[in-house]
Amino acid sequence: MTQNHYDVIVIGGGVSGSALFYELGRYTNVKKICLLEKYGSLASLNSNGSANSQTIHCGDIETNYTLEKAAKVKRTAKMVEKYCLQHGYENKVIFSHQKMALGVGSEEVNYMKNRYKEFKSLYPYLELYDKEKLAEIEPAVVYDKNGNLREEEIVGVGAQNQYTTVDFKALSDTFIDNTLKIEDKVTDIFFNNEVKNIQKIGSTYHVQTSMTQFTADFIVVDAGAHSLFIAHKMGHGLDYGCLPMAGSFYMGNRKILNGKVYMVQNPKLPFAALHGDPDILVNGFTRFGPTALMLPKLERFKPGTYLDFFKTLRLDLNVVKIFYDLLKDSDIRNYVLKNFMFEVPFINKKLFLQDARKIVPSLGADDITYAKGFGGVRPQILDKKNQKLMLGEASIDTGEGIIFNMTPSPGATSCLGNALRDVHIICTYLNLEFDEEAFNNELTEDTIRGDSNA
Ligand SMILES: Cc1cc2nc3c(=O)[nH]c(=O)nc-3n(C[C@H](O)[C@H](O)[C@H](O)COP(=O)(O)OP(=O)(O)OC[C@H]3O[C@@H](n4cnc5c(N)ncnc54)[C@H](O)[C@@H]3O)c2cc1C
Fold it and tell me: Is the whole model's pTM more than 0.85, yes or no?
């Protein structure tokens, strides 16, 4: 074996790859692991704080989640919270804000009241806020620009003392720092090593990067939008295509909201409705968004990757059918058109304001600006076999010692949960031990003290 041989190589230094690197280092008896990252630092793409909404999506205010999905994400979201508390990262990596989902108009108000009853069993800390209470805790959602109470019925369902917000780049940095401190293992990181080619010879994977070569017994590809691109190159996941949906934001010129305010989701629409969030990297100023625009590239603010997009889309009649089915619904058609307009200079802000005023009725054109350089790409998966757009994450376990993970939202929240799934697969394949007791003690919810812990 060469010096560059590892038991496991993780490809991609976003929050998914970093979390896996950490779990392998801390909870298994693996001897040699390595992480390969294309760029010169960790989390420079979607896991960067400026690319995403910095939200721990634990399912309590995400009205597009069913109770079943909420229970799943709650478990993995709590892992991130427990990890941060264990290491004392409060107000450095993880932050607490007030949060709520807002129902506006009688239909949404009734919906939110019913949802509150249903979801309180899973989230006992949830509270119902009427207009009067909202005027006290989140006045911007209640008053119009003349200082009068808005006329529509309105209700909020939310919480006051929960951890809500994570700097996912900082989180990635801590995963790596903590893994590099482990003494009885080889834990190597190679930056500026873009993986160009992977080939399996016998039972060993040969990895060619832009700099050098590595070999490994097991590989996990956590390369975000490029995971499927790499899978296709190796002949895996050919029934999937990737649809990159860019998300942009508008930045408030101050703290317009006191906390996170989400809206009721139209169940037909594939992405979360616009919301307002305190940006922890910009003095807590309120950031509105994200929008949703199909973009023919895999990396938002990096040059190139147009060709990678076309290769990963794998355009055929199945893809055309998926688009046709989506666009024949007028709600989806209007949504797609509106989101396209949100990117067109001169008219974009006016249109965006119309939507954002559902959250903040007094919002004026001078209050927000298009957040240049903010936003990322959600690598949504097209399931060609079933001719459907998949809404969540996807993972291809080939059973041959290589896994490919595609991670649109809430991929950052579920980084430790996804890593746990992969650690189990790796340990079985390589006959390694996983210290489940330590993992459960440190990261699972059963050992969290109480529900309100911020
Ligand atoms: C607008 C928007 C808002 C979002 N909001 C939230 C939110 O509030 N909460 C939440 O939980 N999630 C959110 N998400 C989703 C979240 O950002 C992603 O799920 C998460 O960041 C994915 O992490 P990742 O490590 O899998 O991928 P990425 O962060 O994309 O990282 C992939 C890494 O792989 C590297 N790489 C790629 N190709 C190669 C190669 N060939 N060789 C080596 N390295 C390679 C890249 O350089 C990169 O560092 C949002 C996403 C968007 C776009």
Answer: yes
